[in-house]
Amino acid sequence: MSKVSRLALGLALAALCHLMPVTLPAVHAAETASEAEAAAQAPALTHAEATAELKRLQTEQDSVKQQASDPDGNTRLHDLQETLRRLDADADKLGAALAPQREQLQAQLDVLGPPPVDGTTREAPAVVKQRAELNTRRTQLDAHLKQASESKENIANLSEQLARLERGHLKDQLALRSESILNPQFWQPLFSPPPEDQARLDGFRDQVVPMLQLAWQPSQRAATVALLLLALAVWTLGRRLAERALAWFCLTRLPETRLRRSALALATTLATVCTTGLAVQLVYHAFARSDELPPDVMALYAQLVKLTLTSALIVGLGRALLCTRHPSWRLPALADPVALAMKPFPAVLAGLLLLAGTLEQINRIADTSVQVTLLGRGLVSLVVVLTIGAALLRANRVRNELAAAGERPEARATLAGMIHAAVTVLVIVSMVALLAGYISFARFLTYELVWFDIVLCSMYLLTQVTRDVCEAVLSTNHASGRVIKQLFGVDDSHLEQASTILSGIGASMLLLVAVVALLTGGFGTTPVDLLNSLLTVLGGEKLRSLNIMPDRILNAVLALGVGIWLLRSVRRWLDAELLPKVCKEPGLRASLITLFSNVGYVLLVLLTLSLLGVRWDNLAWIVSALSVGIGFGLQEIVKNFVSGLILLTERPVKVGDMVSLAGVEGDIRRINVRATEIQLGDRSTVIVPNSQLISQNVRNVTMSNSTQGVASLQLTFPLNTDPEQLRDLLIDVYKENESILDVPAPSVMFSQLAPNGITLSVTGYVSSPRIAATTRSNLLFEILKRLRAADIALTEPQSLRLENLPPFGEASQRAYAAG
């Protein structure tokens, strides 16, 4: 090789060495971009597919939420849990599919490296474009992975909520059966609770303990102790002072009537409840004055306030109604030994209910398992059953001892005996349910039993107070009654009527509130809750649906029974107290009472349908069916019903009238919905449909208060008999009879002259048509006696006619002739 050739080859190698630092990175970058593009084109989830999958997961979660919040409670929570498990698996699959793609993109970006920042090095356009596409896809994958993670968290939260809801539904099932209270397994959670329940209770305790520790700090300890001591003083000493002050007011400021006794009982109850409520508020401020309570602790406090006030009400009612210190002031008719025997039970029941109820509320707020919840409910039920059962047994034993000693126990009304029997049966059924393992059912019965006793005792006390207040305020023996009498210009009878009416209205309103409390309330219900329930019932919200539910059926049956008892009680009150003072006519009173009963039963039926949830716009088919029934078989019944309403409103006949209809003559004793009862002279009763009294001719003998009866005899004598002698004889017989009225005077008329003899008609008036038959018999005896003495014979069998004529007088005679 020549020198020139060797020189050219060296220059070429030198140039190649200088160019290699620039060309090698470019070549490497091109190869890496090719590899990244190949990886991006590998089969994987696209952006649209991932977005659609995430949207499907969110849609199905929303569907699960909607089904879980179904107000009808028809959703199967177990199926929803299976759906959530499937969605959770789909979210895991989506995350597992997106994670490798994200790692692959990150690896490709790491190979490309960060973009140059000095500005001196320039990248190839393909590299810049590739890095931008990879960053965009990485951002999209990060968003998808974040949404998948959030969806998985939402699914876990929703699953926990469904589990809690499922536990709640399981706890609320009255037919749920667990271990019997005699089984040691039932009491095991009391000593060794399950780990998950222990964790929930520890979490709730972690919220309570810091609050107590904060209130017990050295800087806060003195104020806390002072408030606690003040609460104790209010609960004990304050209650006694309040009772004495109210007792002094009742005994010195109220009139000397039964109002003192009932007002004293009410004051005892109010003093117990108010001082207990004030003490609870002081305890609350002792521990929660510095910081706001957590939501769970605040919920527990609200429930504890209800439990405490309800327990205080039990104690107050027991002390007020038993009244062992002053037996002469006692409202119910209880023997002293019976009242002393039952004295400790209200306080014992209230205290045990407060403790057991607090345990149950802690379990509810902490959302413990079904086993622990049933343990708390079992304790509550057992406390109530044993306490009330012991009170019943002790009271019965004392009554038996009194009867054995020859002392007469207290008189008991039929309603009181029925209540005593019902309470006994409920106690026995609750105890059997506890022994059989139906804890929720036993707890339901015992809570309803306690609530029924509270409502019954409260209604009895308030009814007595209302009646005594009306009697005292409207009595002329007191200043208030005299002022009302002078102000309105009414007499004593009107004041007595007003007192009766107001006391009846007050008792009816209290009974309505009691019914609403029994149907819509429960143990721990406050007066505000009762007011809201009353407004809800009166507002007609139960008329908005046609769903027949078991609770509505139970409410309807209870309302029907209570309504029938109420109508009968009000009817007896009207018949015995109000109407005798307002209306003196017996027939009008009977018509008003019957009309009230008919309207009351119609309204009661409508109320029962309302409680069943029947909507009136859905009753068209019932009206159609009823129309067909009336056309075929109910026409007569409806006609008699409408006729009965006409009889009660127009009153062409009324109870006590003497009527004659189609050969039936007697006194009306009762006008019913379908028929009228007419009592004949032989004391038998004829049932006449009401339509006949409207559509046929009815002879009402006593429609006018001044109507008199008249007896007319027609006697036929031989032609040779002296008519003037006969006239004088008959007139003398009529005048000598005590039943014949002097005005109008009896008279004899020559009515007929025939070949077989002469016919005379003799007429005499009596004071009432009902004595005409007896008077006729006496007249016939005397006339036949005198005819035989005068040797006067009759030519043929005689006839007698009884008539009821208007009072004697010219105007009446003209009206009678015109009619």
Strand content: 5-15%
Roughly what is the average pLDDT, rounded to an integer? 76
Helical element count?
24
Domains (count):
4
- Overall geometry comes to elongated
Main sheet properties: 5 strands, antiparallel
* CA-CA gap between termini: 170 Å
User: Structural class, from secondary structure content?
Assistant: alpha+beta
Which stretches are low in confidence, meaning pLDDT under 50 for 5 or more residues running? 1-43, 537-546, 798-819
Instruction: Count every beta strand, where a strand is a DSSP E run of 2 or more residues.
Output: 9
Radius of gyration using CA atoms only:
48 Å
**Largest beta sheet: strand ordering:** 4-3-2-1-5
Q: Percentage of helical residues?
A: over 70%
What attributes does this structure have?
mechanosensitive monoatomic ion channel activity, five-stranded antiparallel β-sheet, Methane Monooxygenase Hydroxylase, Chain G, domain 1, 7% strand, 819 residues, SH3 type barrels, DUF3772, transmembrane
Notes on the protein architecture:
With about 800 residues, this protein is of the alpha+beta class. The protein folds into four domains: about 20-170, Methane Monooxygenase Hydroxylase, Chain G, domain 1, CATH 1.20.58; about 195-475, no CATH class; about 650-700, SH3 type barrels (Roll), CATH 2.30.30.60; about 710-819, 2-Layer Sandwich (Alpha-Beta Plaits), CATH 3.30.70.100. It has helices at about 5-40, 45-70, 75-110, 125-170, 185-190, 195-215, 220-255, 260-290, 295-320, 335-340, 345-365, 370-405, 415-435, 440-475, 480-490, 490-520, 525-540, 550-580, 585-610, 620-650, 690-695, 725-735, 770-790, 810-819; strands at about 660, 665-670, 675-680, 685-690, 700, 710-715, 745-755, 755-765, 800-805. The chain has a five-stranded antiparallel β-sheet with strand order 4-3-2-1-5. Helix 8 runs antiparallel to helix 9.
